[in-house]
Amino acid sequence: MSDEDILDELFELIEERKAELPEGSYTTSLFTHEKGENAVLEKLGEETTELILAAKDDDTAEMKAEGADLVYHFLVLLSMKDVTLDELRAELDERFGGH
Ligand SMILES: N=c1c2ncn([C@@H]3O[C@H](COP(=O)(O)OP(=O)(O)OP(=O)(O)O)[C@@H](O)[C@H]3O)c2ncn1[C@@H]1O[C@H](COP(=O)(O)O)[C@@H](O)[C@H]1O
Q1: Residue 30 burial (C-beta neighbours within 10 Å; 0-12, 13-18, 19+)
Q2: Coiled coil where (predicted)?
Q3: What count of other Cβ atoms lies within 10 Å of the Cβ of residue 47?
């Protein structure tokens, strides 16, 4: 499975959680008052700090773990703001065009 596949699958699952709000799901809790937008923004801040500290320690295993948390919460934020993964790809594609 390519990296692109897992990002698409994860984003689709996040969109499904947003639409269906199944109980007992952590993602659901981020889309409801149980945790909400502030919790997503706080997590992005916390995990960015943890990623920086892992990099400073040259701890690549921890970098991957914190990076995965960061990507997941970033995808939740995109979905929360009705931005799609394809729009993010279009932004990256546009920048890559010059190469
Ligand atoms: N990738 C993730 C993912 N990364 C991190 N997290 C959650 O993010 C939360 C915060 O992580 P922390 O390490 O800060 O843990 P914590 O301080 O104990 O968390 P809180 O007290 O703030 O809840 C944890 O509860 C993790 O479970 C994730 N939760 C879900 N996913 C993906 O989303 C899918 C759907 O999950 P559910 O919506 O829970 O079914 C999963 O199968 C995964 O693929």
Answers
A1: buried
A2: none
A3: 20
Tell me whether residue 16 is exposed, middle or buried, using C-beta atoms within 10 angstroms of its C-beta: 0 to 12, 13 to 18, 19 or more: middle
Domain boundaries, given as residue ranges, for the chain: 3-89
Q: Is the pLDDT score of 7 beyond 90? A: yes
Is residue 29 in contact with ligand 1, taking CB distance under 6 Å? no
The CATH number given to 3-89 is: 1.10.287.1080
pLDDT in tens, 28-84: 999 999 999 999 999 999 999 999 999 999 999 999 999 999 999 999 999 999 999
- Ligand 1, pocket-test mutation among 5, 23, 26, most atoms within 8 A of CB: 26
The ligand 1 atom nearest the CA atom of 10? 44
pTM (2 d.p.): 0.91
Q: Quick one: which H or E segment has residue 16?
A: helix 3-20
